[in-house]
Write the structure tokens for this entry.
Amino acid sequence: MTVYTYSETRQKLASVFDSAQKKGEVLIRRRDGSLFRLSPVRPAKSPLDVKGVDAGVSASEIVAAVREGRAE
């Protein structure tokens, strides 16, 4: 984990952000010794956001199956 001083962070803010993005988090140390953690925020994914599966079925076949099921 990379530790930056407060002064380094002020001077190289963009590179500190890049480092946090690559490594997951960085620490920033103030002159008084206190530490702060900088980490990127990961966007939340929906549990319904799943990869599709190619079943080899055409749209017209799906519509026909739905209509057949509704007719019963």
The chain has a mean pLDDT of 93. The CA atoms of residues 2 and 20 lie 9 Å apart.
